[in-house]
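Morning!

This is the sequence you dropped in the shared folder:
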Amino acid sequence: MSGISILMYHQVGDFRRVRTHRAVYCHQRRFAAQMALLKRLQCSVLTMDQVQACLAGARPVPPRAVAITFDDGYENFYTFALPWLQRYGFAATVYAVAGLIGRPAHWLQTDGLPDALLMDAPRLREIRRADIQVGSHALSHVPLAGLSGPALDSELSGSRRLLEDLLGEPVTHLCYPYGSHDPAVVAAAAGAGYATGVTCLRARATRAFDPLALPRKAISFGDDRLGFLWKLLVKHRPKGSAVVRAPDR
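The structure's back. Tokens below.
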């Protein structure tokens, strides 16, 4: 596998069959099987710091390179995903919604499932002590493309400041809510001090991409071992405008 497959998860748990927002849910048994497959394939599981270094040319891209990311920062990450990551010694990055820490995820109400709870501040500190990176998923989980300058700055710089105060360390990795980004958002993310930004564009991350508009591969509710393996192996052809590496960054 050339490049880096950045995997996108949201919730991991014991879910009934779901019909909407299927990329938001991964059954715990399938997650366990997927992590076991990564181990069996001897994949190199990277932190986003390591992804950044690889794409900047500061270190070689290892064989079968993978990064594991979780959007929103759900409490069920701690219950169902973290034990399997720790069992296999895998790194991961959780993107937290800085202005909604410890609150229900109101944007999923249309699924007919109970509102999922986001991890609170003590829990985020706990997973950080367990070597899970914590990144920013902006301030309030709204689409960023088209926001005015002050509102965009609040979402990007404001969320970063809150998370850095909470964790006591720099927060340099960003995930765009809903994958919503455009050139203005990417430029604002650079100005806010982020080193990487991940999107919902589907492809392997390579040096051809702007580090603040990296593609990922969404792992969906229906992905069995074969489907998961296919997503690891297939390159995809991304569609979007803010994906090419900017010459000045």
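Headline: Residues 4-233 form a domain with the TIM Barrel fold (CATH 3.20.20.370).

More detail when I'm at my desk.
O.
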